[in-house]
Design brief:
Jelly Rolls; 2 domains; 8-stranded antiparallel β-sheet; 1 helix; about 40% strand
């Protein structure tokens, strides 16, 4: 009986190892790296007074105003994000930040998450002061997906599979850290991945 059990365990172990190896290979092939892990803020610096809570695979900002700023800089990339916002949440994903201690829409590209922004042309899905959103999207009260492409001067944004910024061109900022904003309401991120171009 014991030799049979050993054989069964050996086969089960081999199958598990093979499946894990195939899964790891598939993840490596798509080229994306997780920027948030939902359990720590490793790789991020906190600036400002926002309250950031981590748990259950989610990073949440629930108090104004501040940022999580990546410790690394990025040049040309694709970002995939999944976020949840209230209808009055004021947030955004800032890319190519020029000053990691003072992040603004004037010294980085702000991909906006703000349904109720005065001046709807730069509301959720727009790049503030660079590319107006078309069509206007509402993110409040549900999980959303966002894809941001920054390749040289070319910038694109897609929300829930629909392009909101198709082909903006701007060459002010070539590289820099990424920042997540908490400026009012609740914002939650459960996925933030990046792939170099």
């Amino acid at each position: 009986m014991q030799p049979i059990l050993k054989q069964v365990f050996a086969i089960a172990f081999s199958l598990t190892a093979a499946l894990l190896s195939m899964n790891a290979h598939a993840q490596a092939q798509d080229g994306y790296t997780d920027l948030i892990d939902g359990v720590s803020l490793e790789g991020w610096n906190i600036i400002g007074n926002a309250n950031w809570v981590i748990g259950k695979g989610i990073v949440e900002g629930n108090k104004p105003a501040g940022f999580l700023v990546s410790s690394k800089s990025y040049r040309n990339f694709i970002i995939r994000a999944e976020f949840w916002a209230e209808s009055n949440t004021n947030s955004g994903i800032f890319i190519r930040c020029q000053d990691p201690q003072k992040v603004t829409a004037a010294n980085s590209y702000e991909v906006n998450i703000w349904d109720t922004r005065p001046g709807q042309e730069y509301s959720t899905g727009a790049i503030v002061d660079v590319a107006k959103v078309n069509p206007i999207h509402k993110a409040g009260g549900r999980w959303n997906t966002m894809e941001i492409v920054a390749n040289g001067p070319q910038l694109k944004v897609t929300m829930n599979g629909v392009p909101t910024v198709i082909d903006a061109r701007d060459s002010k900022f070539a590289d820099g850290p990424i920042a997540l904003q908490s400026a009012g309401g609740i914002i939650q991120f459960r996925k933030l991945q990046i792939k170099p171009i």
